[in-house]
Amino acid sequence: MNTIGFEHITGQEIAVSHLRSLLNKDSCAGAYLFTGQEGIGKKISAISFAKALVCHKASPDPCNECVSCKKISSALFFHPDITLYHDVYNPVGIPRFISLKKMGYEGDESLKGEDVYLEACKLLKKKELLLNPVSSEKGVETVDFFYLNPAKLFVEKDGKTYISSSLIESSLEPLIRENSSAHVLAKWLYTFTKGFYKQSFKVGEQEGEDGRENVRGIIKDIYLKPSEGKKKVFIIDDAHKITEVAADAFLKTLEEPPKDSVIILITSKPEMLLQTIRSRCKKIKFQPIGKKSICEFIRKTKNLGYEDSLLVASFSQGSLGRALEMNLDEVLEKRQEIINLTSQDSLKNTSRFFHFARVFSGEGKEDRRHKINSTQEFIELMLSWVRDLILVKRDGDREMVINFDKIDELKKISNKYSFEKLETIFSIFSGASRLLSRNVDVRIMIESCLVEMKEVVSC
């Protein structure tokens, strides 16, 4: 069954209606900029739009019957006229029941096989085939996010990064003797993601170069003729990661793309793109998804009750992708650290000060990317908590409170702070969130934020 199409996109009726209108009028521009926060359906919408553009039947929706449509059955596809460029460090989301089926567990056997599966995932992480552990939450409908280790999978050539079969085989061979289940899972995982990573590349500045070659490789492909239909579509995810030098090399192509090519840039941070890039693209704005829609979706796909699903929806702040990837237990632990920080006079105690500095800065994470992700999550939780303190202190709309399960604590803690102090603390951590996208020392940045917060609280 084909699952990629506009009808499967949640909470983006306005954007989808606009895209369908463009297809219906056959009035597509040469370059688009899809903007909106992470995890709200921009990439799936881009794939659905591309699928309709290369469909052999003229329609605002893919027919799902022609040869072209049948090649795009999921987000992990390979099509000669649609190229989806990823950052190789991005995760691949795969429903757990699919992986279990490939390991030989179906129906009632899926529940029995889940422990075997989770142990296999742990071993793949231990062997550094995965960069991040898979969620230990139970539930065969869970969507697992796999952060594959590029060093174990890819070789680079002409600015592009390709999967290397020989490199994979050498990485997986030791697993045959150690754990056959882990070997089956890993082999299936890399086979399944081959199409997904077919056109991967490392966006941004790499060792000894400025990212220009990555973009030159894309430009070369854009000027090739379509293989099967009337259009070729090039989707660049996380476009804001392209360096300024590389973006300059891309400007002329964006200004005058070939008539048979459509370029779609996807970004959650359009302000990081050059103005000259933004001005050359037609903009499609995607909105945060409603809490109720996310809650209903999470209840169906995760093994969570209503209140926990509502908490996940609330913390995700409009991002379905974030809700799917979220480990609620870990989030609640981090939130408790924030409650402790704001409810006690902790920053005057040296040992407590450095405790918060350690946990906020992701100490113990094995690589910089996951250290930054952990810190980003702490900062976002901090901002949501301080925002709620301000809202409760103003006796605002309780429906707008993110931490709705902690109303009593919010009331109590908000009485300790003036509006001015809360707004200053919010500003401090907002600035830290922006700095994380730069090459800063995370621990020093967090310590600086805590020192500033201490000064605000003390005065």
Q: Can you tag this structure with a few keywords?
A:
two-stranded antiparallel sheet, Zinc Finger, Delta Prime, domain 3, 9 strands, five-stranded parallel sheet, globular, Rossmann fold, alpha/beta, 459 residues
How do you describe this structure in short?
The protein is α/β, with parallel strands linked by helices.
What does the secondary structure layout of this molecule look like, with pairings?
Elements: H1 13-25, E1 31-35, H2 42-54, H3 67-70, E2 82-85, E3 92-95, H4 96-102, H5 108-126, E4 143-146, E5 154-157, E6 160-163, H6 165-178, H7 180-192, H8 212-222, E7 232-236, H9 244-255, E8 261-267, H10 275-279, E9 282-285, H11 291-301, H12 306-316, H13 320-325, H14 328-343, H15 350-360, H16 368-393, H17 407-414, H18 419-435, H19 442-458
What would CATH call the class of the largest domain?
Alpha Beta
Q: What's the number of helices? A: 19
Q: Given the C-alpha coordinates, what overall shape results?
A: globular
Mind telling me which CATH architecture of the largest domain this is?
Answer: 3-Layer(aba) Sandwich
As laid out across the biggest beta sheet, the strand order is 2-7-8-1-9
Along the chain, the helix and strand elements come as: HEHHEEHHEEEHHHEHEHEHHHHHHHHH
If you average the pLDDT, what whole number results? 85
Task: Write down how many β-strands occur, each being a DSSP E stretch of 2 or more residues.
Answer: 9
Might you state the CATH topology name of the largest domain? Answer: Rossmann fold
Number of domains: 3
The first-to-last residue Cα distance is: 63 Å
